């Protein structure tokens, strides 16, 4: 019952609490050695989850080999665009039987690979050793042990069930799935939609506007995911609609906050300089746009968000262009 969690940010730390509450011994790997030392000495990750006490079952280290020693489950919670480089360095120390679990919600720039595909390519792990966890899981609420549910997806249903038990804590209810594609694309796309919703809020628009963006964003997500082989019911569940609603509606969402600041007139550079946390949708919008184009799927939300992020449109122009699109049947 030993788990290594790579990533000492808010979500990696919050999920470590879930794992510890479920009975696992957890070692968090931190990129910064000083943060690992502080976590061990203060029993708190003050940089990302201040005020949340960490139980004795959680320790931290900057040493990769020490983090992986005895771990039969390896959880990856680093920024999606840095996964390939990091995992290439870590892979030689991962046990050949260990299950690798992705908490990341992004699509790699250039390759357009989902995170499970990057994991498989770098480590050589088969589909029975690669899983994802996705759902409406805002880190601060998880860390406060507020009730939440999520999906544990692996192509091997037996492995998904084993992981389900490993992460089932008193406040965290996991469901199993074999639809890795649907869970990953739902998780990646909702970040882009949340930026669009945030821009609408920043421009001063209300609930009608945000509900419309959320709903059309879900339709766009479902079009692409099902084209790539996902089960459409996945997009109606926790890893689809559930995650989308939480990320688009909560002020705790870094992607919605990112979009809101854009709508208020801040530049991308100003927003990034003001926070040390990554808004994954700011990178994934371009990857998802390209993936949709390659798959011949209409993806206006991804296109418009990418245009704003690259300075080719303002949020005001984006809203005008969206409203000026030709009308059509809703299910078209």
Describe the structure in your own words.
The protein has 332 residues and is α/β, with parallel strands linked by helices. The chain contains 16 helices and 8 strands. Strands 3-2-1-4-5-6-7-8 form an 8-stranded mixed sheet, with helices on both faces. Strand 4, helix 4 and strand 5 form a beta-alpha-beta unit. Helix 4 runs parallel beside helix 5, helix 8 runs parallel beside helix 11 and helix 9 runs antiparallel to helix 11. The model has no long low-confidence stretch (mean pLDDT 96).
Short characterization:
The protein folds into two domains: 2-178, NAD(P)-binding Rossmann-like Domain (Rossmann fold); 181-323, N-(1-d-carboxylethyl)-l-norvaline Dehydrogenase, domain 2 (Orthogonal Bundle), CATH 1.10.1040.10.
Helix content: 40-55%
CATH class of the largest domain: Alpha Beta
Q: Into how many domains do the coordinates divide?
A: 2
Nearest-integer average pLDDT: 96
State the low-pLDDT regions, or none.
none
Biggest sheet overview: 8 strands, mixed
Strand content bin: 5-15%
Secondary-structure arrangement, i.e. CATH architecture of the largest domain: 3-Layer(aba) Sandwich
CATH superfamily of the largest domain: NAD(P)-binding Rossmann-like Domain
Class per helix and strand makeup? alpha/beta
How many helical stretches? 16
Let me know the number of strands.
Answer: 8
* Termini gap: 49 Å
Name the shape in a single word. globular
Strand order of the largest sheet: 3-2-1-4-5-6-7-8
CATH topology of the largest domain: Rossmann fold
């Amino acid at each position: 019952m030993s788990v290594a969690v790579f990533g000492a940010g808010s979500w990696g730390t919050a999920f470590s609490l879930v794992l510890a509450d479920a009975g696992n011994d957890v070692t968090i790997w931190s990129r910064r050695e000083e943060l690992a030392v502080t976590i061990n000495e203060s029993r708190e990750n003050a940089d990302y989850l201040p005020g949340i006490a960490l139980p004795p079952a959680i320790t931290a280290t900057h040493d990769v080999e020490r983090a992986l020693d005895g771990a039969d489950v390896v959880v990856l919670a680093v920024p999606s665009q840095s996964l390939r480089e990091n995992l290439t360095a870590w892979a030689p120390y991962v046990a050949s039987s260990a299950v690798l679990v992705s908490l990341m919600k992004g699509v790699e720039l250039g390759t357009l690979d989902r995170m499970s595909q990057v994991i498989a390519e770098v480590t050589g792990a088969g589909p029975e050793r690669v899983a994802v966890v996705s759902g409406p899981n805002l880190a601060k609420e998880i860390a406060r042990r507020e009730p939440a549910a999520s999906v544990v997806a692996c192509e091997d249903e037996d492995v998904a069930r084993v992981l389900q038990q490993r992460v089932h804590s008193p406040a965290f209810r996991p469901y199993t799935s074999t639809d890795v594609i649907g869970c990953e694309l739902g998780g990646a796309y909702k970040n882009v939609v949340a930026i669009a919703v945030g821009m609408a809020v920043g421009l001063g628009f209300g609930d009608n506007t945000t509900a419309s963006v959320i709903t059309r964003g879900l339709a766009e997500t479902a079009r692409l995911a099902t084209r790539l082989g996902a089960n459409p019911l996945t997009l109606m569940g926790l890893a689809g609609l559930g995650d989308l609603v939480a990320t688009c509606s909560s002020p705790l969402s870094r992607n919605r906050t990112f979009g809101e600041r854009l709508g208020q007139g801040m530049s991308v550079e100003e927003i990034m300089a003001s926070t040390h946390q990554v808004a994954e949708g700011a990178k994934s919008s371009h990857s998802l746009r390209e993936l949709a184009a390659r798959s011949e799927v209409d993806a206006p939300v991804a296109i418009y968000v990418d245009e704003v992020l690259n300075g080719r449109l303002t949020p005001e122009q984006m809203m005008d262009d969206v409203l000026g699109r030709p009308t059509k049947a809703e299910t078209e």
